[in-house]
Amino acid sequence: MGKTTAEKIFTAHLVDEPFPGTKVLRIDVVMCHEITTPIAIADLVKRGKDRVFDTTKIKAVIDHVTPSKDTKTATQAKILRDWARRHSIKDFFDVGANGVCHALFPEKGFIRPGNTVIMGDSHTCTHGAFGAFAAGVGTTDLEVGILKGVCAFRTPKTIRINLNGSLSKGVYAKDVILYVIGQLGVNGATDRVLEFRGPVVEAMTMESRMTLSNMAIEAGGTSGICMPDKITVDYLWPFIGQDYASKEDALADFMKWWSDTDALYDKVFDFDLTGLAPMVTYGYKPDQVKPVTEMAGTAVDQVYLGSCTNGRIEDLRIAAAILKGKKIASTVRAIVSPATPKVFQDAMKEGLIDIFMESGFCVTNPTCGACLGMSTGVIAEGEVCAATTNRNFSGRMGKGGMVHLMSPACSAATAIEGKIADPRKYLP
């Protein structure tokens, strides 16, 4: 019997199996940010174990509230900053060099096919887009990862999601993953790996694949995985070019992580996405999804474009193409947060920042702040936000607020009209 990608990665990284079904894996990359890691640092210090297993395999960033908004968040940042300096962690990104972790770290070339990746953040599953096993973990697991470079997981079962057909104009990766979550339900992939396959995935950029994998957790998935291919090689080539004689050699190496044709899956779903419409959430769960045509006309108070789901340059280009030469409605405020300094710089060079500002958007520094209602875009009680983020839980972006999840294209159209709008009418 063949193996899935996740099973191959587990086999290659297995250190121990203390109990049947519990696999202790060697970890390739431990990621840290200032919200969850300071708790782990404090406990390690208290236990007299203020050490790190390998300074080259730890990546750290201050990204959720940056610059700090008050003494508490400044203290969290200081704990992480002092720890990174204390242990000479080279890949630490402080204010000015920092960005949204799940956009910044792939952009820096830190993820490879076949890697094991952990972080104290549920959207760590984003990095599975590279053919890696990437999962969010709790504080205790993060501590062990920092100290020993290992983490325990249950034997993975994989759900295969075949995305067939082709996407219509105005339909993007965000619409696809919202549709899939709507079909599976928020508990439909609990303790499972979601493996995304099919022609729709094969046609996607790495940025779009990261959007897919990013929201695997919203269906309960531990990780979302795409098969590493030529597109993966092209994205990583600036970082791996010295390791391979050619891109063909890199691809051949990466393909060893592909699921075998006779691999056993827990479930297999086939979705024909031909004719799929832009999707928008309603209610307070990510699986409460409707076509935009059924949500059109719903008034909003704020539009937010950014986050680890849709704050990359591809996303900004899509939104700017719709906004160019237009003004946002006088009844809304709109915020765009490029996910990394490079995204910000590229957007400036391409004139996208000018387009956003001329249309009436507020442009902020790279930050996760608004997504989880901590800073830079929190909404008031009773307000409604159209967001390119990944969660619409009650109070997610502000106590008593409502969040409608949508694509960058849909968010741009919504900003123009001041109510949820179909972006396809604005496309040539």
Q: How is this structure best described in words?
A:
The protein is an alpha/beta fold and 428 residues long. Helices cover 33% and strands 20% of the residues. The chain contains 16 helices and 19 strands. The protein has helices at residues 5-13, 37-46, 71-86, 101-107, 139-148, 173-184, 199-202, 206-214, 230-240, 247-254, 292-295, 307-310, 313-323, 341-349, 352-359, 408-417, and strands at 14-19, 22-26, 29-33, 58-61, 92-93, 116-119, 133-136, 150-154, 157-164, 192-197, 223-226, 267-272, 279-281, 289-291, 302-305, 333-336, 361-363, 384-387, 402-405. The strands form five sheets. It has a five-stranded parallel sheet. Strand 3 (29-33), helix 2 and strand 4 (58-61) form a beta-alpha-beta unit. Helix 13 packs across helix 15 (352-359). The chain is globular. The model has no long low-confidence stretch (mean pLDDT 97).
Spatial separation of the terminal alpha carbons:
49 Å
Strands of the widest sheet, in order across it, are 5-4-3-6-7
Task: Summarize the biggest pleated sheet.
Answer: 5 strands, parallel
The general outline is: globular
Give me the count of strands: 19
Number of separate helices: 16
Poorly predicted runs are: none
Strand content: 15-25%
Key attributes of the depicted protein:
428 residues, alpha/beta, 5-stranded parallel beta sheet, 19 strands, 33% helix, globular
